[in-house]
Design brief:
single chain; alpha+beta; 23-stranded mixed sheet; 21% helix; 40% strand; elongated
Length: 628
């Protein structure tokens, strides 16, 4: 018997693997597949390329229509190349130029805007093809240069040394075409403002305003942007970048540039912008603020009908942080003191202000844009230098209004303004007077000045229950004695009322000679203070209060009014008489604590400025103690 498990297999079953048959595609089938694939690829490429050409033509048509709609008989818009890159979905406009000048009116304002290039990335073609709007991921504007000029106005700035680049008018029919200036608005050394003080009084009423604020508004609401919005309904950009921009605002009389303000090195970035057809510049600005970052350089601003000029080396604005910072600020006349006072018929003060840095925090510009005024949280002024020079050689103009005091200015200010706090550090103040008796001004100096001001507001921002503003300050008088000052006043008060008090520590009184010699024709030969205190109230321009001064060994010399020297025997006798019978050489408390105290009784004079008034009122009380 044979074991079936190890024997030969049953004939009904076969252990061999079944054979499979593989059929290769025929050559004809391969040809058809390859041909079809090639057709699909070529068709896709052709469609892609033709779509790129179509989109290029579409972009050209959009720009052409915008240029056509924005052009007017008095303005010209020109454009270089419009390039659409289908590979990275970007659109580039080269050499955009906008010029406006009314040849029929010699007084019409003119402006020109030149942009080196506008690069748009991430174009939403569905919105564009559907006519709904223009949506972009990013917009980059390179080297925009705006020049805005009002013409025909009267100016009397005969010694302004600087200007900015003018443009050459593109209209050959213009009768007022400036000559001898560079056509390109790019950076470069500016030409000189021509000197000409001739009046054109009949034209002054028709002169256009050339404020930087209006210029920025003009730049935002250009005809090109308006025509594009009218056709598509909205313009949206996820991000906006401006590089190396510049603005020049000026006034022309004929071919002569009389005045120019400028701002260069503008760098701006913002995001999330959407501008609808009905929206204007303020709506756009309110959208820009939350993400805005702005940097600029070399701000130059000259107030109209003024010898003063404001210069700022650098500006930085951060919308998200609501912060503004200015570096190296200077506000001063552009002419020397002799020229400044020679141009004035009556008594006047000259101011020079410089700042190392100014920082503003919690700047609520949205409130300003909405028409609710300007609210500032905190201002820091570092390294301020204020130099005031009063010309006492000329008569007071009795026909003009008195110099405005701070609260009088704020009371009449129509703009709602509120400053929560202002901190002044590392500052200095110099007050000088010019007298006929000397070519050298009498000078009072305050160094190492630190101050804090709180709750400052204008009349338009005053509450029904107004609270006073407070100023606390300390400085070194003539670099020697530490002096403190506290002022309290209602900023919105219609009259000049306030309260101020302070003290002076130990000081060598001879330090005051640089002021007393010229202003009072006397010199302190010896004397020092232990302490001096004052407390003065002002009601409608009339000061009253008390002054206490503890001092020892005071001795003076009376000087001749003309030579400011002690004149021989007569001068010596005058000084002896003054020291013996007039001047109180010592004022110290006796055993009962009694000493001489001064009373303040001073009425504001017509030509008194703020700091001058504080000193004149205090000086009256001191004079009562000393004896003159």
């Amino acid at each position: 018997m044979t074991d079936s498990s190890h024997g030969a297999p049953d004939s009904k079953f076969d252990n061999k693997t079944p054979k499979t048959t593989t059929r290769r595609p025929s050559r004809r089938t391969l040809r058809i597949a390859l041909t079809g694939s090639g057709v699909i690829v070529i068709t896709g490429l052709l469609l892609f390329l033709f779509a790129g050409q179509y989109l290029q033509q579409l972009a050209d048509g959009i720009v052409a229509r915008a240029l056509r709609d924005a052009s007017t008989p008095t303005s010209t818009i020109s454009l270089g190349a419009v390039d659409f890159n289908v590979w990275n979905n970007s659109l580039t406009l080269d050499s955009l130029s906008l010029r406006k000048h009314d040849a029929s009116d010699s007084l019409a304002a003119r402006y020109t805007l030149k942009i080196e290039s506008i690069a748009c990335e991430g174009v939403d073609w569905l919105d564009l093809l559907g006519g709904r709007g223009i949506a972009l991921e990013a917009v980059k504007i390179s080297r925009p240069a705006l020049r805005y000029f009002a013409t025909g106005a009267h100016f009397d700035n005969s010694e302004l040394p600087e200007s900015a680049t003018l443009f050459r008018d593109a209209n050959p029919a213009s009768a007022n075409k400036p000559t001898g200036v560079d056509e390109e608005p790019g950076p470069g050394p500016p030409p000189t403002i021509a000197s000409d003080s001739a009046a054109a009084a009949g034209n002054s009423k028709r002169a256009d305003s050339a404020d930087l604020a209006k210029t920025v508004s003009t730049m935002i609401e250009l005809p090109l942007a308006q025509s594009a919005l009218a056709e598509f309904g909205f313009l949206r950009a996820d991000s906006l970048t401006i590089e190396d921009g510049s603005i020049v605002v000026g006034h022309l009389r004929g071919d002569t540039l009389k005045r120019a303000d400028s701002l260069s090195g503008i760098r701006l970035s913002a995001g999330g912008l959407r501008l609808d057809t009905a929206a204007g510049a303020l709506h756009l600005a309110s959208q820009i603020l939350p993400t805005l970052r702005l940097e600029a350089e070399n701000l130059i601003w000259r107030p109209r009908e003024s010898d003063y000029c404001l210069r700022v080396a650098a500006l930085r604005l951060a919308g998200a942080a609501s912060a503004l910072q200015c570096d190296s600020l200077r506000y001063a006349p552009e002419i020397n003191d002799d020229s400044y006072f020679r141009k004035r018929r009556y008594r006047d003060d000259r101011f020079r202000l410089s700042l190392r840095q100014a920082s503003i925090e919690n700047l609520r510009m949205s409130s300003l844009l909405s028409g609710n005024g300007l609210h500032v949280g905190h201002i820091l002024l570092d390294g301020a230098r204020l130099d005031v020079l009063s010309d006492k050689r000329k008569a007071v103009d009795r026909t003009s209004s008195n110099p405005k005091m701070p609260q009088e200015i704020l009371a009449n200010l129509q703009l709602p303004l509120r400053i929560d706090s202002l901190l002044l550090k590392n500052a200095a103040l110099s007050y000088g007077e010019r007298h006929r008796r000397s070519g050298t001004p009498a000078t009072m100096r305050f160094s190492d000045l630190q101050a804090r001001l709180a709750n400052l507001y204008s009349g338009a921002a005053a509450s029904p229950d107004p609270q006073p503003a407070h100023l606390e300050a300390q400085a070194k008088l003539m670099g020697r004695g530490l002096i403190t000052l506290n002022i309290s006043m209602l900023p919105a008060s219609p009259d000049f009322s306030m309260h101020y008090s302070g003290s002076l520590k130990k000081m060598d009184l001879r330090s005051l000679n640089s002021f007393l010699k010229v202003a009072e024709a006397l010199r302190i030969e010896e004397g020092h203070t232990r302490r001096a205190d004052f407390d003065i109230a002002v009601r409608n321009g009339r000061a009253s209060g008390r002054v206490e001064a503890i001092y020892e060994n005071l001795r003076i010399t009376v000087l001749d009014e003309e030579s400011l020297e002690e004149e021989g025997i007569l001068g010596a006798l005058t000084s002896f008489f003054a020291n013996t019978f007039v001047v109180r050489s010592n004022n110290v408390p006796d055993e009962a604590g009694q000493m001489e105290r001064g009373r303040v009784r001073y009425q504001r004079a017509a030509d008194d400025a703020f700091f001058g008034y504080l000193w004149f009122a205090l000086r009256g009380g001191l004079g009562e103690i000393v004896g003159f």
